[in-house]
């Protein structure tokens, strides 16, 4: 279980996260949503250790991990799929998936991960993770890496952005498979109503504060409101908080 | 062969015993072992130190290994090797120099290699440089490569200098005829106070001649690197020069790609990128469980792979 206690984060005079208190149960599928600039990505980075909070504590499986490095958190079982995947000259898709899995995987295993994200393994396995790949391809490879990492908690920062050619159903299948096989928690930062639909719990973040936590119908009280919020949220993709 | 010699050979030519195909091992300025084949002859030069490697036309799937090792310090070795590759031959040539210097004297090897490829010949040329030894003596390597490609010939040259060479000046020149292609892939890593300079000059003389010069380098500690490449498009041709470098610590890299078009249909491009390892690359690999140091190593190993 992951617990955030009184997390505050301020940069350039702006309170980006304001006293965040949140308990996220194991094995759940959690969606964090909210308008652009509400602090969603910052919250994800704070869980991974990429940003350090000004105050507050992060408890993971009963252990205070607030001061632990990115590496230490990764080893404890936290994973993070970047919104904008990072490119590496010279490192191949196979290299990256092996690093994520922390072992030399069999060819078939790598192929299975790539198939899950809709890529033909034969064509991709030896490709370098660099500019020769499109944004959508990089995004899918990023998701395959996190699938191979098998973390207790995996955070996806807007996994839907840039994968328009690939169906949402496949993405949802990957989430489902990860939950079944790894028995892990998935936290997804999303603007997509179809992902909100399948979430066990939705966290609505507005101006750095948690506005509501609950099922979709509880968070967005009536359907009309849901539709308008989702429409509003979907408009603002690809903006880094 | 003692263990030092074995290790040097493994490093530069990836061989542990006499390889298949034609072979010439030179140690401390002298020929130690030589093997020729029905299609590949190796003849010592009579006017100066060095050899002529003569590959018959239509020779296919054969290889030539000509490693050089220096184990005596204070040795200054200068050698001229000429490769004559017959029409439509298709061969792999592996050269390289390993220096073990454990004294205070300078060890130096300057290899001057010339490649004459006849029509339609195809060569993959691999050259590795490596230095080791705990003495203060300098380990110096100054290779010169000249490439003459007749019509339809193809030469891919892969040069690697990863460790232990204190000072190097590499000079490569190419004259490329019709439909011929020269590909150069250079990988250099310098550390300590090392110094590496690379000069390329390629003349694209023939119609549809092509060249692609790619340099990837890492400069660590106080080391310095300079990359100068000049490509002249004298006909309908295609040329590309690329220099990618990672700098660490107080390393310095200077890149000067120069392309000159002398024909209206010459298509020449260049790109150069120098910078430290991107923070987001480190963060990504750390989020997969690597330490910062391990992440750095992965990035560099991949970059120079």
Question: What's this entry about, in short?
Answer:
The complex is a heterodimer of chains A (241) and B (305). With 241 residues, chain A is an alpha/beta fold.
Walk me through the structure:
The complex is a heterodimer of chains A (241) and B (305). The model of chain A is unreliable at 236-241 (pLDDT under 50). Chain A has helices at residues 40-48, 70-76, 93-101, 107-116, 121-124, 135-149, 168-182, 193-198, 216-219, 223-235, and strands at 2-11, 14-24, 29-33, 55-60, 63-64, 78-81, 153-157, 185-189, 201-206, 209-214. Chain A has a 6-stranded mixed beta sheet with strand order 6-7-8-3-9-10, sandwiched between helices. Helices cover 38% and strands 25% of the residues of chain A. Chain A has one domain (2-85, 150-235): 3-Layer(aba) Sandwich (Rossmann fold). Chain A has 10 helices and 10 strands. Chain A is globular and about 45 Å long. With 241 residues, chain A is of the alpha/beta class. Chain B has 305 residues and is mainly β. Chain B has one domain. Helix content of chain B is 10%, strand content 58%. Chain B contains 3 helices and 20 strands. Chain B has helices spanning 3-13, 279-286, 292-303; strands at residues 22-27, 30-35, 40-44, 50-55, 60-70, 76-85, 90-100, 107-117, 122-132, 139-141, 144-149, 154-163, 167-176, 181-190, 195-204, 209-219, 224-233, 237-247, 252-261, 266-275. In chain B, the strands form 2 sheets. Chain B has a 10-stranded mixed beta sheet with strand order 2-1-5-7-9-12-14-16-18-20, with helices on one face. In chain B, strands 3, 4, 6, 8, 10, 11, 13, 15, 17 and 19 form a 10-stranded mixed beta sheet that branches. In chain B, a hairpin with a 2-residue loop joins β1 (22-27) and β2. In chain B, α2 (279-286) packs across α3. The longest helix of chain B has 12 residues, at 292-303. Chain B is globular. The two termini of chain B are 30 Å apart. The relative contact order of chain B is 0.09. The A-B interface holds A 48, 50, 69-71, 74-75, 79-80, 82, 86, 88-92, 95, 99-100, 102, 145, 149 and B 216, 244, 278, 280-281, 283-292, 298-299, 301-305.
């Amino acid at each position: 279980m992951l617990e955030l206690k009184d997390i505050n984060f301020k940069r350039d005079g702006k309170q980006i996260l304001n006293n965040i208190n949140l308990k996220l149960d194991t094995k759940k599928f959690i969606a964090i949503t909210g308008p652009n600039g509400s602090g969603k990505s910052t919250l994800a980075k704070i869980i991974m250790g990429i940003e350090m909070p000004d105050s507050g504590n992060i408890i993971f499986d009963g252990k205070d991990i607030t001061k632990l490095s990115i590496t230490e958190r990764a080893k404890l079982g936290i994973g993070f799929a970047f919104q904008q995947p990072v490119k590496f000259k010279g490192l191949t898709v196979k290299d990256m998936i092996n690093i994520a899995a922390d072992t030399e995987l069999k060819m078939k295993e790598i192929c299975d991960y790539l198939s899950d994200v809709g890529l033909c393994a034969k064509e991709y396995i030896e490709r370098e993770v660099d500019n020769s790949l499109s944004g959508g391809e990089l995004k899918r490879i990023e998701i395959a890496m996190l699938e191979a990492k098998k973390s207790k908690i995996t955070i996806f920062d807007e996994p839907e952005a840039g994968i328009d050619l690939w169906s949402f159903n496949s993405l949802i299948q990957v989430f489902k498979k990860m939950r079944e096989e790894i028995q892990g928690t998935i936290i997804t930062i999303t603007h997509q109503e179809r992902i909100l639909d399948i979430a066990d719990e939705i966290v609505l973040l507005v101006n750095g504060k948690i506005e509501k936590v609950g099922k979709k119908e509880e968070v967005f009280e009536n359907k009309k409101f849901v539709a308008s919020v989702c429409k509003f949220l979907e408009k603002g993709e690809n903006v880094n908080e | 062969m003692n263990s030092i010699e074995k290790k040097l050979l493994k490093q530069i030519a990836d061989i542990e015993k006499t390889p298949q195909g034609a072979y010439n091992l030179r140690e401390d300025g002298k020929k130690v072992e030589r093997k020729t084949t029905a299609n590949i002859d190796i003849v010592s030069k009579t006017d100066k130190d060095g050899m002529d490697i003569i590959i018959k036309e239509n020779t296919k799937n054969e290889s030539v290994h000509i490693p050089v090792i220096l184990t005596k310090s204070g040795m200054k070795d200068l050698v001229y090797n000429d490769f004559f590759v017959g029409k439509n031959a298709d061969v792999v040539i592996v050269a390289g120099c390993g220096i073990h210097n454990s004294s205070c004297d300078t060890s130096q090897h300057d290899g001057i290699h010339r490649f004459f490829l006849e029509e339609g010949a195809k060569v993959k040329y691999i050259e590795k440089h490596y230095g080791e030894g705990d003495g203060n003596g300098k380990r110096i390597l100054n290779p010169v490569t000249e490439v003459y490609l007749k019509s339809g010939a193809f030469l891919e040259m892969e040069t690697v200098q990863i460790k232990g060479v204190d000072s190097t000046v590499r000079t490569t020149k190419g004259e490329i005829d019709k439909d011929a292609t020269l590909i150069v892939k250079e990988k250099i890593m310098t550390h300590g106070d090392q110094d590496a300079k690379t000069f390329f000059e390629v003349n694209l003389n023939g119609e549809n001649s092509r060249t692609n010069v790619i340099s990837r380098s890492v400069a660590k500690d106080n080391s310095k690197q300079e990359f100068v490449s000049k490509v002249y498009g004298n006909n309908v041709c295609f040329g590309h020069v690329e220099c990618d470098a990672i700098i660490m610590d107080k390393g310095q890299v200077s890149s000067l790609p120069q392309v000159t078009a002398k024909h209206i249909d010459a298509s020449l491009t260049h790109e150069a990128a120098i910078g430290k390892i991107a923070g987001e690359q480190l963060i990504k690999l750390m989020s997969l469980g690597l330490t910062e140091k391990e992440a750095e190593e992965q990035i560099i190993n991949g970059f120079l792979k």
